[in-house]
Amino acid sequence: MTEITRQHCKDLDAQDPLAAMRDAFHLPEGVIYLDGNSLGAQPKGARAAFDRTIDVEWREDLITSWGKAEWFTLPERLGDRLGRLFGAAPGQVVVCDTTSLNIYKALRAAMGLRPERRVIVSEKASFPTDLYMIEGATMGSDYETRLVEPEGDIADLIDADVAAVLLSNVDYRTGRLLDMERITRLAHEAGALVIWDLCHSAGVLPMEMDAMGADFAVGCTYKYLNGGPGSPAFIYVAERHQAEARQPLSGWWGHAAPFAFEAEFRPVEGIRRFLCGTQPILSMKGVEAALDVFEGIDMQTVRAKSVALCDLFIRLVARHPGCADLRLITPEAAEERGSQVSFAFDEGYAVVRAMIERGVIGDFRAPNVMRFGLAPYYLRYEDMFDAVEIMAECIAARPWEDSRFAQMAAVT
Amino acid sequence: MTEITRQHCKDLDAQDPLAAMRDAFHLPEGVIYLDGNSLGAQPKGARAAFDRTIDVEWREDLITSWGKAEWFTLPERLGDRLGRLFGAAPGQVVVCDTTSLNIYKALRAAMGLRPERRVIVSEKASFPTDLYMIEGATMGSDYETRLVEPEGDIADLIDADVAAVLLSNVDYRTGRLLDMERITRLAHEAGALVIWDLCHSAGVLPMEMDAMGADFAVGCTYKYLNGGPGSPAFIYVAERHQAEARQPLSGWWGHAAPFAFEAEFRPVEGIRRFLCGTQPILSMKGVEAALDVFEGIDMQTVRAKSVALCDLFIRLVARHPGCADLRLITPEAAEERGSQVSFAFDEGYAVVRAMIERGVIGDFRAPNVMRFGLAPYYLRYEDMFDAVEIMAECIAARPWEDSRFAQMAAVT
Per UniProt, where does pyridoxal 5'-phosphate bind (chains A, B) (predicted)? Predict the structure, then answer.
């Protein structure tokens, strides 16, 4: 077992093909930010985008900016650019609303496309909002929801009664990556549709949605996509479903002629029928600035660094005597995980809080998960080394005996 | 008929108790902005609020701002402040999502509160998204929608089969103001619930939602409330309905313990159960800055000036020979209108475009409505005088014979 030195990490940084990308982000002094899977760092270009929108588009041009600054077409313009990052051809993605709302739209559309089926499949360990939206979408009806257990195989739950399968490809707690192609194929063989929640993968994992024959996908833009706090989410609907797909959040933005002010809803052709109301333009501009950073970036290069960072982090923790009590719950095999590394540790909450005080920002998920999201755009190999050293020092200090960390509060 | 002179208007401005409020807004040089009912002007304080959120909260403090900058509680903190403007006690309003989405929540909640009833009442001339959301909310069910004709009385449509009545108190085209108390009382006498769409009244009309026993209300914050382009909407739910009210957009933000990550949805007590997903923080900050402008402002004073501006505008147009072909479609009686003045004119589109070129920004609504929203915070009596003079000059120039204005485009 060769030792991993700080110098070795610095050498890796010196050879990093994505090193320049780090310069495109603001990173606070003295902080190692391992929470890019909660809220991404700020692209330096965001400031100018916001300034223009605040000082010119809104302040000076006022209402005329809907046309002049092309606010009207932001949802699909951003959607097309975003789609490239996960293998979606133009015309299939809009940026709008929240992930939860887009799950609702996708669920209801999928249910409508499979009207004779009455089962929704998901997983018990799903990020809860996905399950809550299934409850909402099936409220007052006779749908059954089947949830796979953490160790179960989703294949066992998919049969000819299933209308839709809703899954996160990357688990928000463990970072486990599902075999999207296999599940999509299985679902399609059973005549079901799949809705992929890409919250923890969009922008960091290469995906080929079109090529795998995906049906629907949703996700947020404020994690690995760095669009800013609460920036609008996205929804992908495969072109082949668009003509038949209907969803009940049928606001005027999804109408064929929103300014004809017709009394009856007539959905527009194409992906815009998944829009509902007026989007928060300023927050949309954060997404635009974030997508600028991805221009010309190959997602395979991003993935390679993500894998290398996670590998390094896992190895550093495994070799550090001070971290012996942590249990890795992220799959060790790179092809089975996203861009995060999680450990189970009963005193994890206090350790995460103590690390934050030392400038290493990770987060905690109940009941005992220490979670580190590794954004390959702005993290260095050197950061992995320092973070693990500080983590070990924090554990050694037994922060769970410190009354300041006794009461658990949300770390988001 | 005494002449109204420009000097007379300037004298009115000199006595205006709201004159100082104008200084709280950025207004472009050379522009008379009569489109505050589409997108309000920018409060000067917005810049500092945005700067703090961009440069400190997001850039420096990153994920910790959810707690440290109190992003978590923005929906209800802004809601409480907003509620004061329309007579809602704290704990009944949240700022979130879009008007269309909030209509959906309110409709589904009202339908759930009146489960044995199968009729929704609205009006044919409603802003279309309201009707589209009724279609969505009743999609696939056996609900009937009854729409009152423009000249009809809503009372004729309300009976014991009606679950909910959805109405805009101020008509977006004509500016006509409904008698909210009468309709609320009639609906309640029939056992129905009322959902008020306040898009064209919130922030400009004094209302007493609690006192009139209102049930639900929704509205946007980017018109007379000046929150910025696409800033999030609001929803009001009377406290007495909250415990029983359920709505299917049941995302994690409406959960009793969002960070306990429970698999089943358990709605939080109170108004937060009308939240769904993560809100666009930057756009929320625009609402916060806008509400600062309203601090200490009496809505009766706002209304008095709004009425006076509209009266003046109507009189100026009526007396101007150059405007003789315009037909006023806004009620002349102040108590029957909101804060806008609209005229029917077949060549209205070209005239509005020509006026915009001269710096007088109004808007146009198909098929023939020239619409002027008069925001009393930043408009002067003098502006009314100048706007009408310019309108008359534009009409005299017959812009509809100009090919530049031949093709109608959305003015929003």
Answer: 99-100, 127-130, 197, 200, 222, 252, 278
Q: Which range of residues forms the domain containing residue B351?
A: 6-44+298-405
User: Which chain A residues are Cβ-neighbours of B279 within 8 angstroms?
Assistant: 98, 230
> Element (H or E) spanning B344, and its range?
strand B340-344
Interface of B with A in 85-124 (CB under 8 A): 97-101, 104, 112, 124
pLDDT tens-digit readout, B170-224: 999 999 999 999 999 999 999 999 999 999 999 999 999 999 999 999 999 999 9
Q: What is the CATH number of the domain that holds A320?
A: 3.90.1150.10
Last residue of a domain, one of A294, A327, A343: A294
Residue A62 lies in a domain: no
A229 touching B, CB under 8 A?
yes
Of all residues in chain A, the one with the smallest CA distance to B231 is A280
At residue A249, the pLDDT reads 98
B277–A252 CB contact, under 8 Å: no
CB of A274 closer than 8 Å to CB of A253: no
Residues of chain A predicted below pLDDT 50: 410-412
- pLDDT, position A412: 43
Question: In Å, what is the CA distance from A394 to each residue of B69, B104, B310?
Answer: 26, 48, 66
Q: Judge if ipTM > 0.90.
A: yes
Tell me the sheet residues that pair with A373.
A35, A340
Are B35 and B86 found together in one domain?
no
Q: Is B282 on the interface with A (CB under 8 A)?
A: yes
- For chain B, say whether A221 makes contact (Cβ under 8 Å): no
- Residue B122: C-alpha distances to residues A250, A285, B158, B346, B367 (Å): 17, 36, 10, 28, 21
Per the CB < 8 A criterion, the answer to whether B400 and B366 are in contact is: no
* Co-location of B34 and B158 in the same domain: no
Which residue type sits at A38? S
CA-CA distance, B272 to B255, in Å (whole number)? 8
Among the partner residues B231, B254, B356, nearest to A280 by beta-carbon distance: B231
